[in-house]
């Protein structure tokens, strides 16, 4: 390691050059560092890859004392401390992976003023002994990373974050900085309130990632669609394919390999050596496609990931944004591709219903899913919808599937009414509820055992929807779900009327529907200049 240097009182720009080797600050970095170095608080919203670390590390180096960094991701903590130490910075961490002797060494270094940066996991920080320890040294800055974890409405809530608010009272003279890459306006407010940052300056960067092209298509034959998408990418492009379950990860990786694509699986259930080997190939070689669960990618520093593909629907727009954000961190063109279908919606509703947690909790998960569906089914610009979700206004982007090729729409009012009245009849006359499959059978006039046994061929809507194919009906149902005209319930995804159904039944709410985009896999790869 290089000689340890003391940067107290050094100009931030010099620290940036000497420690990190960068010539200039990016975006809001200089202003944020000024604010915190001057003793003020800051709330920083910056997308992944924006350069948040420098925003608290530089003030910690420049101000006398030790910068405390609260970080929930142990792997990330280790990486950052290693990188800092390699650059001559006196950095260390305290977490559950250490033995008592190691911890004591770090604690003593802190108390004796021998540390510039100390990383601590939130659960450790909430102990009495940790609080006592902090009082024995001198803090320069308190940085709270992944600050959205304090939000009970967010997708990443960590109860330990709630305990961080009182650091304000314990250390009133120490400037604090809260940072996150994912925050809706509501989460943003919660961060200020719960972390007690009422007078903090807020730095909100744009969340737009203009080099990422967003593409979402309807699922028909997901593996074939995925293969076609990957083949449409430039030779040697590295990518990540996200799947929800371990099984799906393994099967997809096997399938792609059999198609001649250099695909590797990655999930927490694989032996550590396999994971390490696969990760290292992904990082070092060209053209490796990592098929992974969503845990993969946090803290993976590979700037030239050319595509991120989702073969299962993410649970929230925040999650989608974070995962797709791992593509194109080098600023070069990249693609975020996804295929989703009605099955995804039903499966996720079921997972929500079966999840432990009270009604409010489930309702919140339902809202996250609804927002994700609205993004999938939008007739407008994907990016506009995505940025709008984060409270950012924008104009159509020209670099998403719907901008490149305006989706075909058709008038879905009559089919929607047929479906809704079938549901209403079954409910009112027979106190019955069914999932998509059986309702489609009724509408298409199918002659199944179940239809005959239930006498559903006697319903007045029986066969009224024979003009649409099974596939068409699934698309109608998916889109009605996305708009809250329908809701899916329970283990079997039985369909019921949603809040917006009344207007449709009365014929007052227009129902323009997208034609399914199946077969659009080879969509033109036009990119914004
Ligand atoms: P975040 O935490 O916001 O995802 P990081 O702090 O990990 O982002 O920074 C992302 C990448 O950008 C890192 O490789 C980092 O070294 C680099 N970086 C940060 N600031 C600058 C800068 N001013 N100039 C050039 N590169 C920078
Ligand atoms: Zn667009």
TrEMBL record:
Residues in Helicase ATP-binding domain copies: 33-201
GO: which molecular function terms? DNA helicase activity; hydrolase activity
Q: Which domain of life is it from?
A: Bacteria
Q: Which cofactor does it need?
A: Zn(2+); Mg(2+)
Q: What is its EC number?
A: 5.6.2.4
Which catalytic reaction applies to this protein? Couples ATP hydrolysis with the unwinding of duplex DNA by translocating in the 3'-5' direction
Record flagged with keyword Chaperone: no
What region holds the Helicase C-terminal domain? Answer: 225-377
Query: Which UniProt keyword terms apply here?
Result: ATP-binding, DNA damage, DNA recombination, DNA repair, DNA-binding, Helicase, Hydrolase, Isomerase, Metal-binding, Nucleotide-binding, Zinc
What family is this protein classified in?
Answer: Belongs to the helicase family. RecQ subfamily.
Record-given protein name: DNA helicase RecQ
Q: What is the lineage of its organism?
A: Bacteria, Bacillati, Actinomycetota, Actinomycetes, Micrococcales
What is the gene called? recQ
Which residues of the whole protein are included? 64 to 592 of 674
